[in-house]
Specification:
about 170 residues; mainly alpha; Arp2/3 complex 21 kDa subunit ARPC3; 6 helices
Length: about 170
């Protein structure tokens, strides 16, 4: 492969990553219209579908790029605490899914991967909150965060499975 072909591939990868990042922002915006869950900070995690897609079908590097960009965007638009929570949740979630894929030799289902990612996203955020704030009352939320992470992970895995045929047709998968 010559230099020109490498540049074209790199440009395509960059454009696809940017499109996926934009899609994740749109999904996060749309999620803001859903009714609030009565536990502070808990959401469905629709934008995490994009990160999972990048991890499963593109590369770890692109998945990390999208997660980091999401965190930086949250930092810029919602402040430092929200940004740290987004970054910590996103990074811990991605690392957990990568470890799972290594342990299972990539044989984990979308459901198991998504649930693992969602639970560890909540755990990552919980760890960050524990470092930022020092009140003991937050520990009462941990069991709820695990239960809601399982539910959110199941939901996002179903959503990913629903959109995969469309991505297949588009040639993105």
């Amino acid at each position: 492969m010559d230099k020109s072909e490498k540049n074209i591939r790199a440009t395509k990868r960059l454009v696809l990553t940017a499109l996926l990042f934009g899609t994740s922002l749109i999904l996060a915006f749309v999620e803001g219209f859903f009714p609030a869950i009565p536990i502070p900070g808990v959401k469905l995690g629709l934008s995490n579908v994009v990160v999972m897609y990048a991890l499963f079908f593109l590369s770890k590097k692109q998945a990390f790029s999208i997660a980091i960009l999401k965190g930086m965007f949250v930092f810029a638009t919602r402040g430092p605490v929200a940004g740290v929570l987004s970054l910590s949740g996103g990074i811990v979630s991605l690392v957990s899914m990568i470890i799972l894929s290594i342990i299972t030799k990539r044989n984990a289902s979308y459901l198991i991967s998504s649930v693992t990612g969602a639970v560890f996203h909540n755990v990552g955020q919980f760890m960050a909150v524990s470092l930022i704030y020092s009140f003991a009352e937050i520990w009462i939320y941990l069991p709820w965060l695990v239960i809601l992470g399982i539910a959110a992970g199941a939901f996002t895995s179903v959503l990913l499975k629903i959109i995969l045929p469309a991505l297949d047709k588009s040639g993105l998968k």
